Amino acid sequence: MTLPPVSAARARELITTFPGQRILVVGDVMLDRFLVGHVTRISPEAPVPVVRVDREYLRLGGAANVAHNLRALGADVSLIGVVGQDQAAERLTTALVQSGIAAEDLVEDRRRPTIEKVRIVTNRNQQVARLDYEDDTDIPAEVEADVIERIERAGAAAAVLVVSDYLKGTVTAAVMQALVRRKGKGPPLLVDPKIPHLACYAGATLVTPNHDEAETATHLRIRTVEDRRVAAAEFRRRARCDAALVTLGEHGMWLSSAEAEGAIPAAAREVADVTGAGDTVVATLGLAIAAGATLAEAALLANRAAGIVVGKFGPSTLDRDELLAQFA
Question: Which amino acids are annotated catalytic?
């Protein structure tokens, strides 16, 4: 079964209500750094290409990219995450402020590096290598307590809570419990998950696994439409969440909830890079729900938003005009 499309008038009504909605994002903040150049030859030292670097640019990644997507769509965003005491933290903070996102709730832990992914890319957008700077152990107790205190404070004013879990240490069991408690006071709780933390998401409003995550969590193969329905329902049961939205790449999405169930066809026209598409999905979902959308309406808008950003290179955002153009 396919979910009925959201009408153009209803979509425009929701999108024009995005500005000013207050969203709290909690999770693993990252800095994505790209070194772009052209391949000149094969190295005489090893059978690898030599890339002559022409330029470097930075993008917000992980939970910071979720926040960036929300801000680009007009939301009033609070961001809670953990950074180190290093140059990457300075660059990340600067990029957040330039994007209109306050960095005051980033918790500093000098014992771990700021998560940074350095991609070496040719000028034809072909990735040659990636360097990761990270410590993916759980944050220590005193940092965890600081994160939880900030959730209690910032969460009090949020219309929706969004968790961006990249399994890098910020989203601990205690952090999730604090968010579930806050959800009990009113705001929906959305989670972009990692399966080793599945048990921690119990009580969430909506969890958004991708195809591989849904298969891993349910021990089911997803090949047919019926497979998608069964796996999404089983994921809900295992995660003990109210609803699940399984993202399926070129096969679109499948929503499973008490209020609506069904397929959402893929919206992408041309795929350049799927990096960060999940960030866009959960950001758009959260903002649409804050604006008054049903889960089905929010999922349909998120699908259109994802179809736009996968046509861009690297972690990307879209603005309201781009989304509105989908419903002209």
Answer: 279
